[in-house]
Structure formats: structure tokens, C-alpha cells
Design brief:
Layout lengths: L1 H11 L9 H12 L4 E5 L7 H5 L3 E6 L2 H10 L4 E4 L11 E6 L8 H13 L1 E12 L10 E4 L2 E5 L2 E4 L3 H7 L5 E11 L7 E11 L8
Parallel strand pairs: 1-2, 1-4, 2-3, 4-5
Antiparallel strand pairs: 5-10, 6-7, 7-8, 9-10
Length: 213
């Protein structure tokens, strides 16, 4: 999968345009509400969303593709970039906020839970995590070869998991849920027609008691 994204960033550059997702603006308000100062963005791509955060917080971005990072450093110079996998984070600091956009659904079940665990390990006590993912209500759900329940290979070597609300809750079992919802994401890229799809988002908080939902 890493080769797929590296090729796309190298050839297409700013794949999804320059406008930030509405979810990152929403996360920004939530982070301010909870007194966040430092934010981690796993799988930050070329900086489309991190730029909306770096003017308000100290932002570190983890990104696997060096081509994406090269673009991001030009587009969002205020953020700091770490080349590496979000599944192998072992940073020597913690963050009060984590914004993870459209990354969770790219993995099979075992690695989805691993990603959440890796993010939680970088989260300070009472810190807040904001995740977005594909919704099972999106029309693309069910297209392609079924690999696992809710997970489909819709292109060769590329798959996605489509989350129901119950499924998303289960993935974050043990973390107090602050907010959940569904949003239509519209991507606008130069010389292309707008493309829309349905996302779910979830906002959870880390605490020592790990209250059950």
C-alpha cells in the first residue's frame, strides 16, 4: 500500500486539492475547547489538513511518503514532519490532541486496532483523539472483493473498511466518546469534477479510568 501512495503523490501531487476537510476545522474547535497545545497528525499526506491546525497549535505530522512530505514542507512549513509509519510510532513525547483523517479505514482489522493503540500511546492523559473513516452508508460500500466483514478490495492491492456506528464504537471500546457523527466530504481538485463521499467521525478522550461506553 505504501508504494501505491508514494506513486500517487509523486505523479499527482496535491491529489485531493488544497481546501481542508470540514472535519479538521471541527477538530480545531474541539481541541481548543479541551485546552490542546500540541497535535499529532498520523498519515498527514501533503499537509492539506495539517495547515489548518499549525496556525493554532504545535503540529507534528507522521507521513510514510517522502514525496508527500516534500510537498507538505512547501505548503505547510509551520508543521514538523517525521517520515515513518503510523503503525510504528514510538515518539519520545505525547500530545494533547491527535487528528487522524481517513487513515483508519485503509487497514485490515488487526492493523486498525494497532493504529488506534499506537495513537493512544502518544496521547497525554485527558488528551483527545479525532478520527474520520468511511461510512457504511456510502454508495461505494460493498464494491469489490470482500476481504473481511465490511472490508472490500475495490482496486487491486487497495482496500477499505466501511464503518457502521456500532463497528466504530467497538473499535474504540474503553475510551469515553465525546462526539460521533456523519458528514459528507467533498473533494475539489483543479480540472476535476467535485467528488463526494460519506464519512463517519468519532472524538474520544484518554483518561486513566478508561470508562466503558
Amino acid at each position: 500500500m505504501s508504494d501505491y501512495w508514494s506513486r500517487r503523490f509523486k505523479v499527482e501531487g496535491m491529489i485531493w486539492g488544497k481546501e481542508p476537510s470540514p472535519t479538521v476545522l471541527h477538530s480545531r474547535n474541539i481541541f481548543k475547547k479541551y485546552g490542546v497545545h500540541k497535535v499529532l497528525v498520523p498519515g498527514g499526506g501533503y499537509g492539506r489538513n495539517s495547515k489548518a491546525l499549525s496556525s493554532h497549535f504545535q503540529v507534528d505530522v507522521i507521513e510514510l511518503s517522502p514525496d508527500a512530505i516534500a510537498i507538505a514542507r512547501e505548503w505547510d512549513p509551520a508543521s514538523q514532519y517525521i517520515e515513518g509509519s503510523a503503525l510504528e510510532m514510538n515518539l519520545d513525547k505525547t500530545y494533547e490532541g491527535i487528528y487522524c483523517y481517513d487513515l483508519l479505514h485503509l487497514f485490515l482489522c488487526r492493523d486498525r486496532h494497532r493504529l488506534i493503540q499506537c495513537c493512544a500511546q502518544q496521547l497525554s492523559t485527558d488528551g483527545v483523539m479525532y478520527f474520520t473513516c468511511f461510512s457504511d452508508e456510502d454508495p461505494n460500500n460493498g464494491i469489490g472483493k470482500n476481504l473481511e466483514p465490511g472490508t472490500y478490495e475495490y482496486k487491486e492491492g487497495k482496500y477499505a473498511h466501511f464503518f457502521s456506528e456500532a463497528d466504530l464504537r467497538e473499535h474504540f471500546h474503553g475510551y469515553p466518546i465525546l462526539e460521533m457523527g456523519t458528514i459528507e466530504e467533498v473533494l475539489i481538485k483543479q480540472n476535476h469534477d467535485p467528488y463526494s463521499y460519506l464519512l463517519r467521525y468519532i472524538v474520544v478522550q484518554n483518561n486513566n479510568s478508561k470508562l466503558l461506553n
